[in-house]
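Hey, weird one. I pasted the TetR/AcrR family transcriptional regulator sequence into the form twice and got a warning about non-standard characters only the second time. First submission, copied straight from the form history:
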Amino acid sequence: MKLSPVQKRIHEAAIRLFVEKRVEEVNVSELAQIAGVARGTIYNNLNSVETLFEDVASQLSAEMNDRAARSTDPHASPAVRLATGIRLYIRRAHEEPHWGAFIVRYGASNETLQQMWSGPPMHDVLSGLSSEQYSFRQEQLPSVMAMIGGGVLGATMLVLQGHKTWRDAGSDMAEFVLRALGVPVDEARGIATQDLPLLAA
């Protein structure tokens, strides 16, 4: 679902509030103030206040998957696409700290946000397995995706806390993931340090 400019402002305000408060503590008055709109505008542009968190999480997952997929060369190898996606997530968290803090806080526990790893990342993992670029058993797929998701969240936290730059954290995590999937060390490092494309609009 494509958001209108007003809906986008409301979602961005909601992300900021959900980072700072528990979900049940967020109210319409604060949301309207942060978004810079009237209370009535909030009601007119949401399915419901009660489903706001899930709506935001669902939109965030779908939007990031779509943008990451459009940012990578469709003809690149699965390893290049996977590494690029990992690094794009971590760079975006640096550029949009509230976005990053939101996925760090809820990404491991919320089922809707976990869908971020079931789109293009899973496709790239399955493609790498079928082309024998990766080496793991098919039944290990859920564990592989959990490793990738947990690794991205951990690297994002390092960036947000100032322990690593997004470049180092992104390249390190992409390299470690590829090595864990069976890509040789030198090849994994080369892929993980390639020039990173801009995230598609």
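That's the output from the first submission. The warning seems to come from a hidden character in my clipboard, not from the data itself. Residues 52-71 form the longest helix (20 residues).
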